[in-house]
Structures are given as structure tokens and as C-alpha cells.
Design a protein that fits this description.
With 116 residues, this protein is mainly β. It contains no helices and eleven strands.
């Protein structure tokens, strides 16, 4: 099982990044995918998630109307716009089976740094 996040980088306040999560080794269509982030010295927090067929999405209040999650064949994307300094952190993607409540597969993260 692999989930590989990419697309992070250094961006100025107000800028955009498109994060990607490439997956393999599991039945992608049976899994919801979530994005999480962790800033230095802080706990990991939920950012966004999309159901297995892509019909439903949900977002943390802090990113609503600025971030958009989407999915296609074996990949999930997180479009991040109007970035703020507080959006900085390592972003991770994770997979949760549609029948379960826990994210069982996690990828290594990609670093987003927003400079003010």
C-alpha cells in the first residue's frame, strides 16, 4: 500500500499550491481519502476529505472556501488557494475504508511553507 503526497513548496501569502496524493496497492474506489496537516509543535489536524465516489466532501472551518479536494483514477488532489501563514505545515493524505471510521493507510507528507 502506498500513498505519496507531493506538490508542497514555498509560497507567499495569498498564493496557491496544488497538492497531489498518488495511491497504489489497495482498492482505491473503496476508500475515502483525507488530507491532514501538522505544523511544528502542534498536533496533526484534519483538513479535508472526500468520499470514495467523490460525491461528498467536507472541510475544516479554517480552510473552507479556500481549499478544494477532488479525486480521479488513483489520485486525490488538494487545491489550496489564498494561502495564509497558518496553513504552513506538513500535509499528509490518508485512506479510510468506506465501512470504517479510522484512517488505516497513511502516506509520507509534503511540506507547505507560506511566507508572510
Amino acid at each position: 500500500v502506498q500513498l505519496q503526497a507531493s506538490g508542497g513548496g514555498l509560497v507567499q501569502t495569498g498564493g496557491s499550491l496544488r497538492l497531489s496524493c498518488a495511491t497504489s496497492g489497495f482498492a482505491f474506489d473503496d476508500y475515502a481519502i483525507g488530507w491532514f496537516r501538522q505544523a511544528p509543535g502542534k498536533e496533526r489536524e484534519f483538513v479535508a476529505a472526500i468520499t470514495r465516489r467523490g460525491r461528498t466532501t467536507n472541510y475544516a472551518d479554517s480552510v473552507k472556501d479556500r481549499f478544494t479536494i477532488s479525486r480521479d483514477s488513483f489520485k486525490v488532489y488538494l487545491q489550496t488557494d489564498s494561502l495564509k501563514a497558518e496553513d504552513s505545515g506538513v500535509y499528509y493524505c490518508a485512506a479510510r475504508h468506506w465501512t470504517g471510521s479510522q484512517y488505516s493507510y497513511w502516506g509520507q507528507g509534503t511540506l507547505v511553507t507560506v511566507s508572510s
